[in-house]
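# step 3/5: fold
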Amino acid sequence: MAGIFKAYDIRGIVGDALSPQKAYLIGRGLASEVFEGAGPIALTHDMRTHSPEIFAELSRGLTEGGCDVIEVGLAATPMSYWAINEYNAAGGVQVTASHNGPEYNGFKVSGPKAAPLDYSTGLDKVEAFVIAAEKEGAPASTKTGTKTVAENALADYLTWMNGFMEPGDRKLTIGIDTGNGMGGFFLPDFFAKWTQFEVSPLFFELDGSFPNHEADPLKPENLLDVQKLVRDKGLNFGVAFDGDADRCMFVDEKGDSISSDLITALIAGEMLAKTPGSPILYDLRSSQAVPQWIEEHGGKPVRGRVGHSFMKRLLKKEGARFGGELSGHYYFADCFGTDSGLMALIEILNLLSKSEKPLSEHIAPLRRYSASGEVNFRVTDVKETLAKVERHYSAQGAELDHLDGLSVVLGDIKTGGWWFNLRSSNTEPLLRLNLEAQNETERDAHFKEVQELLGAEPVQGH
């Protein structure tokens, strides 16, 4: 399969690795091995040039495999989750490769109520089905499903999302960069209703070739355009969406980027004002300021593994209202426990329109410590390197855990301690390091210490 079946989704370069014929077989495999002929299945796709053809073949595979389908059509990934619930579907598939380049495409698969499906919960069986079908042909199906085309889906989705708007009286100016991705599909209609917000748009035109920059706001270079826009126009804040609009990153009125873990804490404070005592999720790479802030606002911080499948399951298990990841994924119980860039933006709009303070002043109390950000290191032997690091810090009496990779805590960060997490990549011989200390000087010294143990230089990673 040329590695297109990933831990959380199906994704690869269009051509030999992912073709319309493979999309058909994946549809057949999903119908047989995951949905087992149940339906309807809500189908959506992004703006990539090859998405419509792949979408059509996926739909054909599902229906010939016995599943009824509802073709919603062009949509951002969060709208796919909404459609599954709106149409009481047995599951859904979004055709997208998220933030990856124009040569990529893929599938995000969900079960009932938009529950995540990944390699450990069914995609492994689909892979086996496709491999067998390519060798021997797809087995005959005992029934054929029906196809229905959804009408007015975007308008209905935005009516639902508008119900979460609770703006104050303050007018705001906002710079928004959608990177030619799916944010440009719904944001003009969304803001048409809210005239107190003046939007300066960047790259709203849907273009799967991504002619301006990669649609991945986690990379600092992809925030430069919206940062410049905010500074040049003196806007109140800026936001950049990824390709399928399930993630976003914010910049303040100065054009300075805001780490997503701090936005998680900021939104958590607003949530806890409405529902005191609620559990709030944060991923284990987040600043220690995040659980501190949650506790200070009367909430229960819950530390989770990295990855949308893990976070979504943990959100439901804990009965949490909200959670966030360093990657810019924000999860909301109000959005069926799924991630939504638009809902995160709504929360910030609600907050700032009720306050005279600029965004930077809301964030300032959270900038307590100094973090490295995620840095990748290529190593010869991932397991042996992790074991070496663990032995070293265990001998120093560090607190260790293995929730996701190796986490090491050396004292309370409030009183000069520091911590780091090392996680391995699913696809490359890489270790990903996140480290935090009280200040930049201590951070840099500890970073150098860990790097020397790793015996490697930082590299670009995915």
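# step 4/5: annotate
The chain has four domains: 10-152, 173-258, 260-366, 370-459.
# step 5/5: archive (pending)
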